[in-house]
Write a structure and sequence with these properties.
This protein is of the alpha+beta class. The protein has one domain: Jelly Rolls, CATH 2.60.120. The protein is built from 4 helices and 10 strands, in the order E-E-H-E-H-E-E-E-H-E-E-E-H-E. The longest helix is centred in the first third of the chain and has 19 residues, at 68-86. 36% of the residues are buried.
């Protein structure tokens, strides 16, 4: 398909909020009214994007590539904000790792154990997830969590081995989580913050931070991008040249 024209996207005039969450006071950026008009982006998802579950690792659904110009538009406007809030070194260069539509579709009975608990994306220090809610709800939002056995809210290289050992021990002692989507605090994780789902709301957070979609299976699961919990997701990594 032909890329949508950059002029189809509104000039960023979002309402920005920076929330510092948990004991570690990690910044999470929340922006509302980012595009103003979501119809172009949703129409591409419905009419052109080939959704697939292949190669999606632990994601409980299907994904498709976003229009390249949307990714460029978002990053050109958000990269300065990310650099400022997260103190990214000036000489680090940013690159987009993935830019994808995401649609949650997996029935709860088919969830793997690690799909039932919060997760982190990476241990890298300057890797960020960008999530843009697209369809009107109501849908479940996004929760951020603290691992109960370790107290960790983010996973770094230094914490990784200890986290894995304690998580496995705790699961042996307390049992695996039930076959359902994460809805909040449980025996393994404590939810420390929740961001509600709202169309045209965009979140930015470090990939090392524990997080999960707060999915309600009877409401949020759909294979139809016109009516499901459709999001645009970008992953941005900064590293030394």
């Amino acid at each position: 398909m032909a890329a949508t024209a950059q002029s189809d996207y509104a000039i960023l005039n979002a309402e920005a909020q920076i929330v510092r969450i948990g004991a570690e006071q990690t910044p999470v950026i929340v922006l509302d009214n980012v595009l103003g008009d979501l119809e172009t982006l949703k129409r591409v998802a419905c009419e052109w994007a080939p959704f697939s579950s292949e190669g999606q690792a632990g994601y409980p659904g299907v994904r498709a590539n976003l229009p390249a110009d949307y990714g460029r538009w978002v990053l050109s406007r958000l990269e300065p904000l990310i650099r400022e809030v997260y103190k990214v070194p000036e000489h680090f260069r940013g690159r987009c790792i993935h830019q994808l539509y995401s649609l949650v579709t997996t029935p709860e009975s088919e969830l793997a154990v690690l799909q039932r608990v919060p997760h982190y994306d990476t241990r890298r220090g300057f890797y960020f997830a960008i999530m843009h809610y697209l369809n009107p709800g109501p849908f479940g939002g996004t929760g951020f969590f603290r691992h109960r056995p370790t107290g960790y809210e983010r996973i770094t290289d230094e914490r990784f081995e200890h986290f894995v050992g304690e998580a496995e021990r705790h699961m042996r002692e307390h049992g695996a989580p039930p076959a359902r989507y994460c809805q909040g605090s449980d025996a393994h994780f404590e939810m420390i913050h929740e961001v509600d789902y709202r169309p045209d709301r965009l979140l930015i957070y470090p990939g090392s931070l524990f997080h999960s979609g707060l999915i309600q299976a009877d409401r949020d699961l759909s294979t139809d991008p016109a009516v499901g919990r459709l999001t645009a997701n970008l992953f941005l990594d900064f590293d030394a040249p």
